[in-house]
């Protein structure tokens, strides 16, 4: 899809060619490297049968990072992958926990920055970068990716940007309590420290993805495939999906979807997009409905986008496509200096068959409120939050040193809870058409409840 707002999405590319002999040779390099990593770590693997399906190595931490390495190994061997890996900008994040121990669970902080750095042309104009309307950076996306190599599971928990936390610094600017995203202005270190202090979650590694990084990753993969039940529109982010069905999303539209929190959908399947109107009644008359969930809806659509990105990454076996992907990745992606090439390749080998639908996604339980100085905000909801954190992080969870405040601006320690099998989010629709998300405990584990999406939101699809 072209990157403009008024362009019609490209049609899905039909079919997919069979792997060639050259592809199989690339696979041998991957398997040899994986054997070397496992031998060094003491892990044992069952013999593998060489076949076309094994060429499709697919692991994605926080949507992007590990695919870089696995693709590089397939595309040109360890030397090429190491060269590409060294091109990716690195940062040192103060206050992180120890580096992960082989085979043990660990946590990656994924930060989606709203930095416009690197954007040019029409995309820069559409995001406000070209006129200097938006400067600096804020953490519009905060996800903690919990990886358990032995169990073979990946869990992502999203913290809405308006969640109020206890600040560790900059109180003269922002007060003692403020939204969590104010901690990212000078980089990820303070944000990582604030998460650990408020919630007891140990951050082991960090990834930062800017607007340009998301666009480059999606484009280098040839876009991602999402099924839209209805024509969709966000006048603020620039999202314009002209027709329903399974279609490729790339370029500016990939960014617009991931940023969308003023989401409209047209139940009449009409393709009339209003211009210069803010009348909700007029929009209703044209068949447009509004998703009033704001950041909650955006988190749902981001999770769908990440799952679709995982599915598309499985096709990274064409050497030309791999080179294009790896060339684009360093622009807008920043990795923690704690990451090493051998570590990521070892993880990629372990998670080579991860299913995108097996990745569990949660949103931190909260409740809305209005504060005289902060406006509309979210307070952490207890005991649901502590229950969710204990279920995900178990005994690795620390006692918070600076718990988040409640609506009375008190900071009691989190309640004592015991591990339950799972925590299932529920959604309630009000007469105004908005949703309030809460959480309740259950012992049902037969399905992944986090795959549930509102009927109007897109879901990954196969063209």
Task: Report the uncertain regions.
Answer: 1-31, 43-65, 129-136, 422-447
How many β-strand runs? 20
Backbone structural class: alpha+beta
Largest sheet: 7 strands, mixed
Distance between the termini: 15 Å
The domain tally reads 3
Shape: globular
Helix content: 25-40%
Provide structural commentary.
With 463 residues, this protein is an alpha+beta fold. It folds into 3 domains: 67 residues, no CATH class; 266 residues, Aminopeptidase; 68 residues, no CATH class. The chain contains 12 helices and 20 strands. It has a 7-stranded mixed β-sheet with strand order 1-14-7-2-3-4-15. Strand 3 and strand 4 form a beta hairpin. Helix 1 packs across helix 2, helix 2 runs antiparallel to helix 11 and helix 6 packs across helix 7. It is globular, with a radius of gyration of 22 Å. The two termini are 15 Å apart. The N terminus is likely disordered.
């Amino acid at each position: 899809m072209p990157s403009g707002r008024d362009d019609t999405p490209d049609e899905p590319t039909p079919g997919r060619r069979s792997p060639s002999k050259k592809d199989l040779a690339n696979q041998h390099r991957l398997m040899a490297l994986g054997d070397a990593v496992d031998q060094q770590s003491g892990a044992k693997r069952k013999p593998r049968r060489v076949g076309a399906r094994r060429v499709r190595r697919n692991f994605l931490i926080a949507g992007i990072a590990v695919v870089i390495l696995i693709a590089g190994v397939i595309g040109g061997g360890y030397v090429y992958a190491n060269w590409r890996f060294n091109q990716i900008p690195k940062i040192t994040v103060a206050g992180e926990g120890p580096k992960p121990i082989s085979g043990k669970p660990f946590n990656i902080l994924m930060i989606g920055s709203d930095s416009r750095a690197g954007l040019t042309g029409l995309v820069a104009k559409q995001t406000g970068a070209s006129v200097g309307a938006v400067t600096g950076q804020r953490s519009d996306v905060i996800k903690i990716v919990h990886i358990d190599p032995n169990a073979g599971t990946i869990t992502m928990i999203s913290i809405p940007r308006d969640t109020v936390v206890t600040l560790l610094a900059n109180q003269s600017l922002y007060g003692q309590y403020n939204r969590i995203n104010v901690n990212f202005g000078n980089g990820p270190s303070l944000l990582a420290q604030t998460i650990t202090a408020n919630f007891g979650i140990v951050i082991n590694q960090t990834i930062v993805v800017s607007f340009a990084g998301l666009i480059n990753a999606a484009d280098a993969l040839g876009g991602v495939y999402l099924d839209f039940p209805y024509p969709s529109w966000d006048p603020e982010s620039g999202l314009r999906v002209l027709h329903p069905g399974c279609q490729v999303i790339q370029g500016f539209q990939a960014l617009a979807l991931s940023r969308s929190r003023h989401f409209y959908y047209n139940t009449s399947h009409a393709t009339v997009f209003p211009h210069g109107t803010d009348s909700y009644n007029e929009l209703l008359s044209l068949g447009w409905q509004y998703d009033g969930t704001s950041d909650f809806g955006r988190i749902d659509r981001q999770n769908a986008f990440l799952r679709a990105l995982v599915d598309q990454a499985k096709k990274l076996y064409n050497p030309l496509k791999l080179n294009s992907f790896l060339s684009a990745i360093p622009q807008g992606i920043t990795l923690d200096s704690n990451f090493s090439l051998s570590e990521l390749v070892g993880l990629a080998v372990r998670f080579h068959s991860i299913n995108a639908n097996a990745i569990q996604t949660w949103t931190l339980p909260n409740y809305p409120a209005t504060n005289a100085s902060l406006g509309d905000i979210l307070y952490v909801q207890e005991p649901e939050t502590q229950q969710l954190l204990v279920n995900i992080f178990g005994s690795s969870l620390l006692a918070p040193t600076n718990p988040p405040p409640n609506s009375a601006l008190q900071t009691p320690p989190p309640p004592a809870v015991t591990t339950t099998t799972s925590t299932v989010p529920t959604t309630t629709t009000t007469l105004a058409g908005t949703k309030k998300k809460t959480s309740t405990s259950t012992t049902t584990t037969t399905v992944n409840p986090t795959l549930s999406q509102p009927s109007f939101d897109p879901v990954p699809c196969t063209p």
